[in-house]
Each structure stands twice: as C-alpha cells, then as structure tokens.
Design brief:
By secondary structure, the chain is an alpha/beta fold. It folds into two domains: about 5-125, 5'-nuclease (Rossmann fold, 3-Layer(aba) Sandwich), CATH 3.40.50; about 130-180, no CATH class. Helices cover about 55% and strands about 10% of the residues. It has ten helices and five strands; from the N terminus they run E-H-H-E-H-H-E-H-E-H-E-H-H-H-H. It has helices at about 10, 15-25, 35-50, 55-65, 90-100, 115, 125-135, 140-150, 160-170, 170-180; strands at about 5, 30-35, 70, 100-105, 120-125. The protein has a five-stranded parallel beta sheet with strand order 3-2-1-4-5, with helices on both faces. Strand 4 (about 100-105), helix 6 (about 115) and strand 5 (about 120-125) form a beta-alpha-beta unit. Helix 2 (about 15-25) packs across helix 8 (about 140-150), helix 7 (about 125-135) runs parallel beside helix 10 (about 170-180) and helix 9 (about 160-170) runs antiparallel to helix 10 (about 170-180). The longest helix has 14 residues, at about 55-65. It starts with a strand and ends with a helix.
Length: about 180
Amino acid sequence: MPFAVVLDTCVLYPAHLRDTLLRLAERGLYRVLWSADIVDELRHNLVESGFDPVSINQLIVEMGKAFPDAEVVGYHALIDGLECDSKDRHVLAAAVRAGASSIVTFNIDDFPAGSVLPFEVEVSTPDTFLLDLLDLAPATVIDELSRQAQANRRDPKTLPSILDALCKAGVPSFADEVRRRTA
C-alpha cells in the first residue's frame, strides 16, 4: 500500500492543484487522507470566495466517491494534546490517528519540528511533495499532467498551460522541473 498523506485545506483549495494532487493519488502514487474538519474548511473557503454552493457540494461528494477511504475519523480526542498552531491541530491529529507519513500544506510554519517529530510525521509544501512524486515516478506524473490538461473543457488545455496554472497555484519549482524534463 502506498504511503498515506493528509492534504491540508490550503492545498485542496486551488482547483488545478487539487486536481493534480488527487489525480496522482488515483494513480496510486500515495494514499490521500483528509478529515471532516478539512473538508468543512474547504467548503467554507469556497463559499466565501463566491463559488456556487451546489457545485461545492458536488465537488465534495465526488471527492468522497473517488476516495471512499480518505476520511480520517476518531482524531478529535488527540487535538488538545498537540503543540502545533491551534488552528491546525485538527490536521496533525488526523495525520497521527491515520498513521500518515506526511502532511502537505502551504502552512509549514504552523507545524514546528517539535510538534510533529514525536509522531514521525513529515510536513511538506505541495511544491516539495510534487517534486518528490516526480522523482519517484516521472513518467506517471508527466502522463497524468497531460491527461489533466486534455480533460479540461476550458483553459488550461495543454501541458504548458497546466504548468502555468500550477505555478500560479503555488508550485513553481515543480512546474519548472516538469518543463525542464519535457523540453
């Protein structure tokens, strides 16, 4: 079984980044995990950004269908005993409860080394995580990015344009490395 990774809300929010991360999980490169709190926060942030609530609910239902074993349960009792940033304790608690090897987040500073070290949980930015997946399975990652672009009904519809979108979504080193490898 592939290694388990908790995706924080902030990496699920940008649509193209979410799509890339979930597509790579579907390809079996890692096991995706989230909690009800992460999904609720995603829903709230999308509503606050003006997205249609019906579309948001459809997205969340589809995520659950695609990854029926992704939701971590039974982690709330761990939250108060954790030492990371209080607003992200639920993320670490879900990772600990599920035995995840990693949390992927833009909020690295919210998880000081001392707060995750006892649980052997690594905290990575999505840029670093995707670069690691690219090193692990370059052909699979590049193939899936091409499939992602082709599946879009509107731009970005090409590999270069999906890489531009991913760069804007916060993974510029990953986008640059894929460009380098596909040049």
